[in-house]
């Protein structure tokens, strides 16, 4: 059976700059991009955000920023239509502001009564 080590066997013959460039290319390839959504999806999110704001529901919001996917949970504290951001408040009373351009998914995590 052939036990080929792939690219590893060639890295010793490559210049360090080339190895670094290959690593950077692989890292870029792994990064995700924010998908574009149609008006229907944005309208659905708008209704969900308004409902979550008025009924104090915990949302789970997935974002992609700089190619890195992140999941944030919290109550809708503020919806800023001018700057197109939402601010979530988690159970530890920490605020997280998210750009609507970075959001890839919004789901209801749970309905929970929030005590200030």
- Strand line-up in the sheet with most strands: 4-3-2-1-5
Helix content: 25-40%
- Give the mean pLDDT: 81
Q: How many DSSP helices? A: 3
Name of the level-1 CATH class of the domain at 39-111: Mainly Beta
* Dominant shape: elongated
Could you please describe the fold and organization of this structure?
By secondary structure, this protein is an alpha+beta fold. It has a domain at 39-111: SH3 type barrels, CATH 2.30.30.520. Helices cover 31% and strands 35% of the residues. It contains 3 helices and 5 strands, in the order H-H-H-E-E-E-E-E. It has helices spanning 8-11, 16-30, 39-55; strands spanning 57-65, 68-80, 85-89, 95-99, 103-111. Strands 4-3-2-1-5 form a 5-stranded antiparallel beta sheet, covered by helices on one side. The radius of gyration is 21 Å and the shape is elongated. The relative contact order is 0.16. The model has no long low-confidence stretch (mean pLDDT 81).
Supply database-style keywords.
SH3 type barrels; 116 residues; 5 strands; 3 helices; single chain; five-stranded antiparallel sheet; alpha+beta
Write the layout of secondary structure elements.
Elements: H1 8-11, H2 16-30, H3 39-55, E1 57-65, E2 68-80, E3 85-89, E4 95-99, E5 103-111
Antiparallel strand pairs: 1-2, 1-5, 2-3, 3-4
Short description:
This protein is an alpha+beta fold.
